[in-house]
């Protein structure tokens, strides 16, 4: 590791809001897995090696950029788990609408171009010219 000193990073720190990730993220949630991977398994040596500058304030620990849980701890900047749960149906509906629009566009393209084609193929007359050119180059 480089000689650069980082601001401390402790995912279990109890001073920042939220006091514990477990207070807002239920057990078994993917966020716990990501935190554990960053904490225990991720090799951050390439990131540490880039920090050679000794001047200025110490940067935040690179793991903070991976989790954002503690970096955006302000109650005004972070959305609480309860608020996220309230918005989840609205966001799920939005995703469902996007998926339906994509399915509908796909069906329209299948009707226009055929289900066995992507719709971005060369027109037949250009394909024939290209075929003749390739045969001539032989």
List keywords for this structure.
single chain; 138 residues; mainly alpha; 5 helices; 51% helix; 0% strand
Instruction: Provide the gyration radius in Å.
Output: 26 Å
Q: Which overall shape is indicated by the principal axes computed on the Cα atoms? A: flat
Assign the structural class, choosing from mainly alpha, mainly beta, alpha/beta, alpha+beta, or little secondary structure.
Answer: mainly alpha
The major beta sheet can be summarized as: none
- N-to-C CA distance: 59 Å
Number of domains: 2
Average of the residue pLDDT scores = 75
The percentage helix is: 40-55%
Describe what you observe in this structure.
The chain has 138 residues and is mainly α. It folds into two domains: 1-78, no CATH class; 80-138, no CATH class. Helices cover 51% and strands 0% of the residues. It contains five helices and no strands. The protein is flat. The protein starts with 29 loop residues before the first helix and ends with a helix.
A few lines on this structure:
The chain is mainly alpha-helical and 138 residues long.
Write the layout of secondary structure elements.
Layout: H1 30-41, H2 45-50, H3 62-67, H4 81-113, H5 124-137
């Amino acid at each position: 590791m480089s000689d650069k000193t980082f601001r401390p990073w402790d995912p279990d720190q109890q001073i920042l809001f939220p006091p514990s990730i477990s207070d807002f993220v239920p057990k078994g949630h993917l966020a716990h897995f990501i935190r554990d991977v960053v904490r225990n398994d991720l090799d951050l040596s390439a990131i540490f090696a880039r920090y050679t500058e000794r001047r200025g304030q110490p940067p935040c620990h690179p793991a903070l950029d991976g989790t954002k849980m503690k970096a955006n701890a302000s109650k005004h900047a972070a959305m609480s788990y309860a608020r996220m749960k309230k918005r989840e149906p609205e966001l799920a509906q939005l995703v469902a609408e996007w998926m339906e629009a994509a399915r509908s566009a796909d069906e329209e393209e299948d009707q226009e171009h055929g289900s066995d084609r992507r719709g971005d193929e060369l027109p037949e007359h250009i394909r024939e010219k290209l075929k003749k050119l390739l045969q001539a180059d032989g």
